[in-house]
Amino acid sequence: MNKRKSAKVNFLLVMLFSTVIMACSDTGQPVKGTYSNESGYCWYIDLPQHASSSDSMKNPNVSTLQLFEDGKKMGPAHSGHDDIRKLGMGRYSHWGEGVRFSTTDNSNPNTNNRIYSIKLK
């Protein structure tokens, strides 16, 4: 390979690597653990370290937590828990010590081979 082609290949590799790094950091940290089925389409994951910034009866829209499925932002956030249970389709709520959510296709997050991650704005 000549120097010019080598430089182009190196440039493309650097751009690709940079894009991957930016995409990973933009979707926050992976949520690890087992998701428990609360009922219907609603799944729950315990996140006590973020409890102080969650929604509550007094402040139902204060949480800035964003939830991602395979790098794609889910939502709407601050959804009613009954809507998550009955309708699903990616709705979620950061409430108390955890997150109640449904996957975007209402599948089981423990077996659908997708990666879930969170980010606080």
How are the secondary structure elements laid out?
Blueprint: H1 3-26, E1 29-30, E2 36-39, E3 42-46, E4 65-69, E5 72-73, H2 81-86, E6 92-95, E7 98-101, E8 116-120
Antiparallel strand pairs: 1-8, 2-3, 3-7, 4-5, 4-8, 6-7
Quick synopsis:
This protein has 121 residues and is an alpha+beta fold. It has 2 helices and 8 strands; from the N terminus they run αβββββαβββ. The protein has one domain.
Could you characterize what this model shows?
This protein is of the alpha+beta class. It has one domain (29-120). 25% of the residues lie in helices and 26% in strands. It has 2 helices and 8 strands, in the order αβββββαβββ. The protein has helices at 3-26, 81-86, and strands at 29-30, 36-39, 42-46, 65-69, 72-73, 92-95, 98-101, 116-120. The strands form 2 sheets. The protein has a 4-stranded antiparallel β-sheet, with helices on one face. β2 (36-39) and β3 (42-46) form a beta hairpin. The longest helix has 24 residues, at 3-26. It is globular, with a radius of gyration of 18 Å.
